[in-house]
Amino acid sequence: MVDHDLIIAKAGSIRRNLKRISVKGGVDLETFLSDIDRQEVISFNLHLAIENCTDLAAHIISEEGLGVPGSASEMFYLLEENGYLSRSLTEKMIKAVGLRNLIVHEYDNIDLKRLFEIADELGCNKLAFGHNKDDIIETLFLNICYAGEISTMVPSQSFFQEKFTLIRPLSFVDEDVIRRFAREKGYPAFVNSCPTSKVSKRQEIKTLLKQLYRSNRKVKGNIFNAMSNVKKEYLLR
Predict the structure, then answer these.
(1) CATH of the domain spanning 4-116+182-234
(2) In this predicted model, what pLDDT tens digit does every residue of 86-100 receive, in sequence order?
(3) Cα dihedral angle (63, 67, 73, 76), rounded to 10 degrees?
(4) What's the pLDDT tens digit per position in 202-232?
(5) Burial class (CB in 10 A: 0-12, 13-18, 19+), 37
(6) How do the domains of the chain map onto residue ranges?
(7) Distance from C-alpha of 51 to C-alpha of 75, rounded to nearest angstrom
């Protein structure tokens, strides 16, 4: 049974998010670009509004038995097919979810310039990626083994003379913790549609690291901590 109290609460949250966006967004472009706090309020509330919409969709589909969506986009298609959403609203939500999926699940093929253009059109100065602790460690080993350098992704990174900031809020969270949380909350699982995703270099590194982790439970933490404890005097120059 659909929890009407939950629906009302989520709808109220979305209204508050949109109101905050409206209040902070009613300025000229020059004022907006010079006000970092204003930009952050708008981008944060936009993110929350979309997430609340996705939570609502998942709840209704689950409680009404409308099917098992294979992705967040499919959730909104199911709602449209069952008369919950108009076609125009469905298309808007698909675009929002599509951008999020691109950021979180297909970061190897991202056109950063296009993402920043979209962010600029939406009046946002931050892009949040879904990389986690495991991704950061894997990238370190990928760069060592296949790029001949010691580098990885960082939690926060500025672009275009600091006009935009790319953030990774899950940088310090284990992938297993995220998966467990998603299962507990009943979030839909997203499957990488790329046919080579299971035989990629990243997957090879992931398999290698899992073997190391099994040999000693401290290895993962030690590798992660080592990235902020570099003794340059003991490296080749």
Answers:
(1) 1.20.120
(2) 988 888 888 776 655
(3) -60
(4) 888 899 999 999 999 999 999 999 999 999 8
(5) exposed
(6) 4-116+182-234
(7) 13
